[in-house]
Task: structure prediction
Amino acid sequence: MWLWVAFILFVFFLVALDLGVFHREARTIAFKEALMLSAGWITIALAFNVVIFFLYENHWFGLDLAGSEPDGRTAAVLFFTGFLIEKSLGLDNLFFHRLDFLVLPHSDRVSASRTILGNLGCSNHARRVDSWRHRVNRAR
Result:
């Protein structure tokens, strides 16, 4: 249980670092800076993939002892597959936000907040759709 708490706190730390340090001020980010930030976050994800491999391969913190959990290689492949899927799903956000910024008037000051609120709105919509699917499946 404490491993999950540590993981969630680490994710909150990374989000706070991103929003509170890297994007504290509303400004236009240059293409080169955007590439560097993306490369940094991808590096963190790949380093976490290595950590997952060693956690499961060496049975650290009791992982992979019950026999129902994957070995290190399988766990790392599962994480990497999920990472690639999330990255590809993130591309549709780029197209949506580009369309949003082309169609609706905006200033550079509100671009970041509009993007964050749009992503939260999409997450909320996905949660409601999943809840609706659960109710429909339960009714069958």
The CA atoms of residues 17 and 23 lie 9 Å apart. The chain is about 80% helix and 0% strand. The longest helix spans residues 72-103. The chain has two domains: 31-104, 111-140.
